[in-house]
Amino acid sequence: MGRLIVIEGLDGAGKRTFANGITAELTARGRSVARAAFPRYTDDVHGELIGEALRGGHGDLGDSVYGMAVLNALDRRSAAAALRDDLRTHDVLLLDRYVASNAAYGAARLHQDSSGDFVAWVQELETGRFALPKPDLQILLQVPTEVAAQRAEHRERTEADRQRDNFESDAGLQKRCGEVYAQLAAAGWWSPWLVVDGSAQVDFAAIVDEHVLA
């Protein structure tokens, strides 16, 4: 059975770049790697609805914290069998966002912290009722909100398919979300966490040795 490694962080934290670095390091060592990213905007109807709602579609759906959280949870539930298959056939499965992103963003939208009702509700829904695969490690790429925003803005200018959505454009929400993420990591929510400075040079070899394959 492979190891499930989740990469979490704000929009613009560098999750995709970090995943590329970990993948390259593992591949150089002869380890097989599978990857997935949530929401699955183009691969699942729930993901499609999420993307449309984040850009103002479907009436007031995007305003519903619980409605959006349920769609995100259903997107992962429909992917659960494929995730388990990847874990059976690969050494490492890397996920860009997972359950903690649902908890962090929803709590931030409701102005709650990690000890609030929303995080508990997400945990019961996704890890309890839906019984999603548990990570071996969750990695938080921690960057200042301003740095993440600058990166997201640059990405929007230079990549035609990376237009920011309503959440990504809300600086206050991003700041609160970063605070909830830090609380989840400090509490070891659901699994062990590793906090990485996303604004500094990353030693991928050390992370793979000490955490990913440990």
Automatic annotation (TrEMBL):
Alphabetical list of SUPFAM superfamilies matching this protein: P-loop containing nucleoside triphosphate hydrolases
Record-listed E.C. numbers: 2.7.4.9
Signal listed as a keyword: no
Catalyses which reaction(s): dTMP + ATP = dTDP + ADP
Family annotation (CDD domains): TMPK (cd01672)
Keywords tagged on the record: ATP-binding, Kinase, Nucleotide biosynthesis, Nucleotide-binding, Transferase
InterPro entries referenced in this protein's UniProt entry, alphabetically: P-loop_NTPase (IPR027417), Thymidylate_kin-like_dom (IPR039430), Thymidylate_kinase (IPR018094)
Gene Ontology CC entries for this record: cytosol
GO biological process: dTDP biosynthetic process; dTTP biosynthetic process; dUDP biosynthetic process
Occurrences of domain Thymidylate kinase-like (ranges): 7-169
GO molecular function: ATP binding; dTMP kinase activity
Record keyword Repeat present: no
Protein's job: Phosphorylation of dTMP to form dTDP in both de novo and salvage pathways of dTTP synthesis.
Family recorded in the similarity comment: Belongs to the thymidylate kinase family.
Protein name: Thymidylate kinase
Organism expressing this protein natively: Saccharopolyspora kobensis
